[in-house]
Specification:
heterodimer; A: mainly alpha; B: alpha+beta; 3-stranded antiparallel beta sheet
Chain lengths: 169, 119
């Protein structure tokens, strides 16, 4: 039972630390340590871990309140926060086995399509290959951006996504 | 529709309580150091603020970053568990005095406004 508790709490704290990536490492360590201390105090009072963690909200929500508080006093700007979040999203979404596999397969498919179009073009009129090649490159470029955007959407909190959209308009 | 109205009323009250939480926190920390859960219990039981962990800890960190409170880790002798204790700094005490002055002035004027409107 104790082991299960530790595993759940450890998983929560690990995810929380990930969502606090915008803050300095020392502050992240401090927050994680404080959350652990608070939860263990509550468990010692007889509260259930599931109820304690539910009351705290998801690690993403919990971390967001810290970041919001730092934005209020101006020690963390929205731009810095967005930049770090996007880098983290790319790491989390793309630097995984599945993410890399998708990118490798997609890059190979784009290369094959491009080579095939060039071969077809070389056997016919010299100028005809250019428009299909452009279309293929355009498609490959935008679909890669779409994959990256999807990866970002999976990690960045919803409220932050809204803020990023607003800034891009 | 009624649920939406109640939620909106709850949100307004939550925002109101969050607004005064900083002053209530500094008031408790002026007399002695507290750890987070102890502060949360006192704020909810004595001031009726009904705050959650997700509100109080980020607020404490913000006040610490602003130099209004200081924090230190202590290991409890009773159970050997480490706890982070917060206490007020001189800057925090001065800020609290200013907050209380502003709060009292605002409360007096608001009371007058509300009483005048109810007559």
């Amino acid at each position: 039972m104790s082991e299960t508790r530790d595993v759940n709490l450890d998983a929560y704290v690990k995810r929380l630390r990930g969502h606090l990536a915008v803050l300095p490492a020392r502050e992240r360590d401090d927050i994680a340590r404080e959350v652990e201390a608070e939860v263990r105090d509550r468990l010692a009072r007889g509260e259930r871990l599931s109820a304690v963690l539910a009351a705290m909200g998801s690690p993403a929500e919990y971390a967001e309140r810290y970041c919001d508080a730092r934005e209020v006093d101006g020690t963390l700007t929205a731009t810095t926060r967005q930049r770090v979040l996007v880098v983290r999203a790319l790491k989390a979404g793309l630097l995984t086995k599945r993410g890399l596999l998708v990118l490798v397969v997609w890059s190979a498919a784009c290369a094959v399509i491009t080579i095939a179009l060039m071969r077809i073009a070389s056997t016919s009129d010299q100028l005809q290959w250019f428009p299909p090649l452009l279309i293929a490159m355009f498609f490959a470029w935008w679909s890669t951006i779409a994959i990256i955007a999807l990866a970002i959407m999976q990690v960045v909190p919803k409220s932050m996504q809204e803020q990023i959209r607003r800034n891009w308009r | 529709m009624a649920d939406g109205g109640e939620r909106s009323q709850d949100n307004r009250q939550t925002q109101l309580k969050k607004g005064v939480a900083e002053m209530a926190l500094l008031t408790l920390l002026r007399s002695r150091a507290h750890y987070g859960l102890e502060l949360l219990d006192r704020l909810n039981a004595e001031a009726g603020l009904d705050l959650a962990e997700g509100t109080i800890y980020p607020l404490l960190h913000r006040l610490e970053a602003a130099g209004l409170v200081r924090a230190e880790w202590r290991t409890e002798t009773e159970n050997g568990r480490p706890r982070k204790y917060y206490s007020s700094t001189p800057k925090g005490v001065a800020e609290l005095a200013s907050m209380i002055g502003a709060w009292r002035a605002m409360r007096t004027r608001l009371d007058a406004l509300i009483d005048g409107a109810e007559r």
